[in-house]
Amino acid sequence: MVAIYKREMRSYFSSPIGYIFVALFMAVSAWFFMSYTLQKGQSSDFGTYFQMIIVLFVAIIPLLTMKLMSEERKLKTEQLILTGPVTLGGIVISKFLAAFTVFGGSFLLSSFIYYIPLFMYGTPNTVIYFCCVFATMLAGAAFIAMGVFISALTENQFIAAFGTMTLIIPFLFASSLNTYINNELVRNILSGISITARYSSFASGVFDWAALLYYVSLCGTFLFLTVRVLEKRRWD
Length: 236
Known about the structure:
Blueprint: H1 2-13, H2 16-38, H3 47-65, H4 70-74, H5 78-82, H6 88-121, H7 126-151, H8 157-173, H9 184-193, H10 195-203, H11 209-235
């Protein structure tokens, strides 16, 4: 597992993908922070900033995940990995952790940097701020797991990126449809699968164990499905 993890980390920064992701994320997140927090002069109101960051994930997380599995198929190295001494679960988790490290490192660095002006020029609610950071990290992890799964289905990186966006969007905007739906059962289902609906408790400064279980379950489900895809292909 460690060897695959290191290999994936090297691949991010021996190609432009890792640098593009970090630069793009830092630039756009800085603009969001300036626009939705600092320019409003409200150091305690950063909820909109984190909501915009989660929406941003739709566009940038596929950059990290599109090559994780699809590149192995394209380069014909997949069989070498599948028949190696590492378990399929180990392969999937190693690749997931590599993508999560690049994402998490960038996000945590930006969160720390942006907290400094909030603290220096205002009185931010530290508990709510770091609950938002934690919840956003969980949402990012769930999206990465989805991207790993989609990447395992195709050898075309563009299709993997587009497919990941297509999969993320319903989970992101499901609860927004409740405004137009009167059926209570459907509304409950949409709220149940919505990532943003689960995020709202953390945004209020409340540690929601049910929401944590939801995010962990979402990650586990898509990583498990990825293992099943690889297992099927190994025996084909």
